[in-house]
Amino acid sequence: MSLQAQVDNDIKDAMRAKDMPRLNTLRLLKAALKNTAIEKGGADAVLDDVEASAVIRKQVKQRQDSIEGFEKGGRPELAANEKAEIEILSAYLPKALSAEELAVIVRDAIAEAGATTRQQMGAVMKIASAKAAGRADGKALSSEVQKQLS
Questions:
Q1: Which domain CATH number covers 37?
Q2: What is the dihedral of CA 62, 68, 69, 73, to 10 degrees?
Q3: Cβ distance 134 to 94 under 8 Å?
Q4: Which residue from 2, 37, 86, 102 could staple onto 45, CB 3.0 to 4.6 Å apart?
Q5: Which structural domain, as residue segments, surrounds residue 58?
Q6: End-of-domain residue from the set 72, 90, 108
Q7: Which CATH number does the domain housing residue 107 bear?
Q8: Which tens digit of pLDDT belongs to each residue from 123-143?
Q9: Residue 31 pLDDT > 90, yes or no?
Q10: Running DSSP on this structure, what letter comes out for residue 91?
């Protein structure tokens, strides 16, 4: 079952259960998926799971940014809502890489690129990003590459 089909089924389940926070979050996700599909190829386009995962990661990132703003603005109740939405969205993402797995991927990417200095970080990031396949945050990946190239 594709990720989009899973979201559609979960929307129906949330409607039956009258779980409004989950339902609202999933409806926003479905709209984001549909908008991305339309941008990709028109009204009938369907995203594959990799593209859908990228949309979900983008939604999680937006909510993380909102949490920072709400906490700085003294609105903990809104930050709590965003955190709850992140938990719902995270269930659709593949399991994140551990620090050890990330270090191994970066080490392999450095060896594959033949990099020895920070000036070659772009080539290493390209290879490491492809190997991580969306299971690692870009910031974490970048900091690990910098650490190993130092």
A1: 1.10.1510.10
A2: 160
A3: yes
A4: 37
A5: 3-90
A6: 90
A7: 1.10.10
A8: 888 888 888 877 887 888 888
A9: yes
A10: T
